[in-house]
Amino acid sequence: MTRIQNVIRDTAVPSWLNSVPHNFGEAAAGTIKADEWRNLSTIFFPIALISMWGDGSSHATADEAFRFRQILDHTMLLVSAISLACMRTATAARSVAYLDCLSKYIKDLVILHPDVNYRPNHHMAMHLPHFLHLFGPVRSWWCFPFERLIGQLQRLLSNHKFGKFDVVLSFCYV
Amino acid sequence: MESTLLQSFLRAANLKRWLAKPDCPAVIKECKALFNKIYAPKVPDSDVGDSSLQDDVADTEHVTGSDATLDALLQNAKGKVATRARLRHNGIIYSTSITHLGNSLVQFYPNGDTALSPVPGCIKHIFSERNRLYLAIQRQLPLDSPIPDPFALYPQFPAKMYSSHISPSLERVEVGWIYSHYARWEMSAEYAVVLSLNRVRRIFLASVSRTYCSPQE
Questions:
Q1: Which residue of A37, A168, B51, B179 pairs with B107 in a disulfide if CB–CB is 3.0 to 4.6 A?
Q2: Do A54 and B147 lie within an 8 Å CB cutoff?
Q3: Least CB–CB distance from A47: residue in B1, B195, B199
Q4: What is the value of ipTM here, to two decimals?
């Protein structure tokens, strides 16, 4: 965890990349939002984990090294799948590579982590190549613009009396 | 509540209309510029195209003798040369390493040749020569001694080990040669991890060290 925090603190990134909490993992960091999860899982986690558990790292015992390496390789399958799915251009080859990474990840999940159960999200993620094929890159059809709008609406001050509120709102937006 | 919301919306609309009118007093127009700076959306509009000319960055005339390496790079320069702290190209801001280190780390095609793999470097200076903008870039040096690169095993994760040092010599790079920004984490005093942040295309960095050639003066 300290290594991840160090990587977040010391990595030089451009200003267009949204920042992530430097105290990730502590309660004070608050809830991590989707974009922060994406940046953490495609940039900071892999750098930290590969530098700790990857080729050339030293561990107390050979068993421990093997176990960490297995977990790292498994996590990297998910990292690869996320970055492939989030690319701004979609190709058939990328879609196939995504499916390949994700299916290996899901297959090994219960073997490497016996205490973990499959979730509906695992199932839904397998449908993504189909949508990539139908609609193109995720950026053009993901729900984050709507989530942002919902966030704005939630932050509006109100007196909790619902009357013509929605009518006025829709009038304003039109 | 609804009427309050509606009223404030109408007032805001009236204010915007007033600010946009040509007969608005000059003092209020100054306020508009300030408002735009404060409340303008952070995400740049990617459809704007090359807006480097709309930049509000002031150029400073280059004084010979302030930086010997830049002087060497500019010895054949014709006309007036001016330096600046940052520039905006296709909605993305690039700056010098003193201004913002993260915004100064870019991968670029050597000599603009897109057949080669992009190489990472750090923008030391941004200068304009005869109304064209150029970058003076110091390349990230490759590793001195070959060590196993743990990042090479994951082809979908475009990270690679480099030396944490940058080349002392500067290279003149055109703005159009830039491939993308990159993230850099200094693993130790000798090694740094370079991660390409391009989300459109993916060129594997594995071949970078092969195509590395000595920087041109």
A1: B179
A2: no
A3: B195
A4: 0.74
Whether residue B138 is found in the same domain as residue B83: yes
Residues B2 and B86 in one domain: no
The rounded distance, in Å, linking the Cα atoms of B127 and A100 is 47
**Does B9 contact chain A (CB < 8 Å)?**
yes
CB distance A76–B159 less than 8 Å? no
The DSSP call for residue A117 is: -
**Residue B189, domain member (yes or no):** yes
Task: Give A69-104 as a DSSP string.
Answer: HHHHHHHHHHHHHHHHHT-SS--HHHHHHHHHHHHH
Contacts of B154 in chain A (CB under 8 A): 46, 50, 76, 79-80
A17–B197: do the CB atoms touch at under 8 Å? yes
User: What is B12-70 written as a DSSP string?
Assistant: HHHHHHHHHSTTS-HHHHHHHHHHHHHHS-SS--GGG---GGG--PPPEEPPTTS-HHH
pTM: 0.70
Residue B217 lies in a domain: no
pLDDT of res. B207: 38
What's the domain count of chain B?
2
Q: Which residues of A touch B195 (CB under 8 A)?
A: 43, 47
For an interface test with B, give the residue of A5, A6, A16, A57 to mutate (most B CBs within 10 A).
A16
Whether residue B79 is found in the same domain as residue B32: no
Same domain, B144 and B160: yes
The CATH code of the domain that includes B75 is 2.30.30.490
Structural domain boundaries enclosing B203: 45-212
Q: Give the model's pLDDT for residue B17.
A: 79
What does the pLDDT read at residue B55?
Answer: 54
pLDDT digits (tens, 9 = 90+) for A43-69: 888 888 888 888 777 777 888 888 888
Q: pLDDT, tens digit, for every residue of B73-89?
A: 777 777 777 888 888 88
Are residue B145 and residue B76 in the same domain, yes or no?
Answer: yes
Residues in chain B: 217
Spans in chain A with pLDDT lower than 50: none
For residue B21, is it within any domain?
yes
